[in-house]
Amino acid sequence: MGTTQADLTRTAGKPIHCKAAVARKPGEPLVIEEVIVAPPKVHEVRLKIICTSLCHSDVTFWKLKDFPGCFPRILGHEAFGVVESVGEDVHDLKEGDSVVPIFLPDCAQCIDCTSKKSNNCSKFEFKVSPWMLRDGTSRFTTVDGETLYHFLSVSSFAEYTVVDIANVMKIDPCVPPNRACLFSCGVSTGVGAALKSAKVEPGSTVVIFGLGAIGLAVAEGARISGASRIIGVDINSDKFEIGKQFGVTDFVNSNSYGDKPISQVINEMTNGGGDYCFECVGMGKLVQEAYACCRKGWGKTIVLGVDKPGAELTFKSFDVLHLGKTLIGSLFGGLKPKSDIPLLVKRYLDKELQLDKFVTHEVSFQDINKAFDLHVEGKSLRCVVWMDK
């Protein structure tokens, strides 16, 4: 990877001048510019980013004009890197470790992090903050002293970044960097939602609203779990051929039925609804459609899509009481980062998890805006951005 221990030692404890792709205005191309990355403080590490991938959340907040969108900002949160230096009171990580940053804090100490029932850290609440986790400041400035905002506690669209130890974990160096970065968010979220949040059973019927990267990762998790029928719902019929690679058996184009509710179509296809229905788009009306085609008595609806701030859901009290369905949110697929991601890594190394198929494009850091174009045009599942290529 071109990084030696001597290289890391020379920069430890000092500010680093490096390149970053800065989002300066909503929806406008990122600007590659020189930035200064401060040394890590207590409970922090500084990472040399080897490669990063583009997630839909990066695009969402790149376009967002109102808070929690804010500019200038260094986006990016799916990445693979090497620990360049560590701050005080860092004991589980050392210089040279292969790591992936994680947007969801895992302090490994609080009541939630030590419980098998939750992945919502009670010590560090998850929020889309522009600052570092503990002290509410930034580690990024321009050469002119302008403060640059953080994103999801990671900010991987830079050659170096600083993250809290609650937001980073070691990963088996046997995993190639351009695959390891995918464990940071999207693929883990979708696969985890099927395996852990839903606990999809062999022989079950799964319905997935939205066959983007997360929806396809749900399909992959359902396939691994032995689901007998995986129904994909999308407005793009081309997604069916892609979905077949991840186990999708049936496809419904939601634009092809006029005024007929898609939930009715699914209920008729399945003789009563799916055992597990996943909403992977981030639209309230699709959550309600997923709930409506979830089998009464035991069906479970899992919400993965990120809707616009302030969006609300409405359900009839009668249906909630009488139909016996379950509706749950699944942040990061219900995974506990530091204990569950190693299990997904093992599935990949054992050739059980088809991680390779998610990477459809790879570009150099200088071409990072091409990754955004590919995503916006719907041509890419995951585009990996190499920092040194």
Give an overview of the whole structure.
With 389 residues, the protein is of the alpha/beta class. It is built from eleven helices and 17 strands. Among the domains are: 188-333, Rossmann fold; 355-388, no CATH class. Helix 4 (186-197) packs parallel to helix 5 (213-225). Homodimer. Belongs to the zinc-containing alcohol dehydrogenase family. Class-III subfamily.
Please estimate the helix content.
10-25%
> Mind telling me the C-alpha Rg?
21 Å
**How would you classify the quaternary structure?**
single chain
Instruction: Characterize the largest beta sheet: strand count, sense, and whether it forms a barrel.
Output: 7 strands, mixed
Protein name: Alcohol dehydrogenase-like 7
Cofactor: Zn(2+)
Subunit structure: Homodimer.
Family: Belongs to the zinc-containing alcohol dehydrogenase family. Class-III subfamily.
Outline of the structure:
This protein is of the alpha/beta class. It is 25% helix and 23% strand. It has eleven helices and 17 strands.
